[in-house]
Amino acid sequence: MYNGPTEDVGSFFKERSYPLPQNFNPADWIMQVAQQQTQEQLTKDGFFTPDERKLQPAIIPEKSELLDSLGVTAHEDISNDEWEKRGFLTEVSLLFKREIVHNSRNKKGVGARFALTIFLSTLVGCIFYQVGNNNYGLEEGYDNLQSHFGAMIMILIQSMFGTAMPTLLSFPAERPVFLREYSTNHYSVLPYFMSRLCMEAFITLMQILVLLLITFFMVGLQSNFFHFLAIEYGLAMSSTAVAVMLGCAVEDPKMATEFLPLLFVPQLLFAGFFVRTDLIPVWLRWAQYLCALTYGARLALLSEFGDCAAASEINPCRKLLTANQVDEDEKPIYWAILWLLFVTFRLCGLALLRKKATKFY
Hints:
By secondary structure, the chain is mainly α. It folds into 3 domains: 1-53, no CATH class; 57-84, no CATH class; 88-360, no CATH class. It has helices at residues 9-15, 26-36, 39-44, 65-70, 88-105, 107-127, 145-173, 175-183, 189-219, 225-249, 253-258, 260-269, 282-285, 292-310, 316-323, 331-360, and strands at 58-59, 74-75. It has a two-stranded antiparallel sheet. The protein is elongated. Residues 64-71 have low confidence and may be disordered.
């Protein structure tokens, strides 16, 4: 049906009115066209041309046990090391380069992700413009404390949701490609998982940086910028870890959208914004330790209102920290739990992905 080089598949099929779809595997497209059309129609359209390639005589390498055992022939210009299994770092490096190429081609998707971040960040910045520039030691500044707190929480929620949603949908969408390449022993699960993690970590950092460059200064937050950036990044990475676990558990991207409430609603319910966690029934209270927003918010509260609460003559900030059960001495614990959630959910996602792959094949 086609005897030319790989790079000419697109032009060859386009000339015969079968253009290769964007981001489509050429081999899959050849198989799809062959299955959908009759041989007579394909011959009429100009397929099955004579093989004009100049190939060296095929041989069976005597020293290659792998090729001999499989009965596969190779040409003289193919070295044996091309058939050897590559190391872990090599697989990660190659897969990461492919992720870079994929994202560079997906300009609309990546552009929409950052455009939405810029729009929502600007909207939050306009609504909460300079609410953080208040002296809460003065009586007239007390009323703005809740607005200041609300602005900070909105920034945290935006960083969590904006980074987790694309990650949740990406794993089910790319599952067929992963299963096909995994079944043909192109790579193992761990290198694939690590390459995705490296790319997600970079894009998440850029997205959080764009978000904070807009909202931090428009809202007038009092925290150290880089300290707040570290908190936002830790929260975002923990949230994407939950999204990865859910994404690895489902097979259909449409089904993944059904899990969006499961990803976000518990975070809001157990964070302590709507009800104190000590008022939640004991048999449900344990779930707060699975919600990254709880500990991200406590770290943000300490960073934003810690200095204000330390002043003996100022009470509103200290009351705010007390109401949200925030303790300065427990800051290392908050950080530890936040990153422990990241590691735990990532490992769960890895286990689910491996199980799904081995079960399918």
